[in-house]
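Structure request: Iron-binding zinc finger CDGSH type domain-containing protein, Dicentrarchus labrax.
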Amino acid sequence: MMCLGNEPAGHRGCIYLLLLCVTYSSLCLQVQCCRQSTEIVSAARMPYRVKVSAGKRYAWCACGHSKKQPYCDGAHRIKAPSISPLRFTPEKDRMVMLCACKETKNAPYCDGSHFKVIFQDLVKSVKGIFK
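Returned structure:
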């Protein structure tokens, strides 16, 4: 099997899964194509306020696919293999704001980039109304 080459931007390669499913009356064979993302996705529009402990190692999700935001759950291995989590160890116990929009220039900490993301979403919504 091969890909048709008309993949959307930000995707690469295909992994074909051959699924064998048994129904009540028949046997069916299915082929599915799963695409891997090479782009970062926003997990949320607002940062996560979390308490971190001094000396403890954390893995901040950099791809946005983790179900345990803002921390990595390994989802990037399948959904975004070219994007690795950012590992960090705080020097003291404190409350921090960890980026959720994944646009920060000060990863893993929020730098306010989500305001730009929210504004861009708003502009898209307004433009959509007047089309």
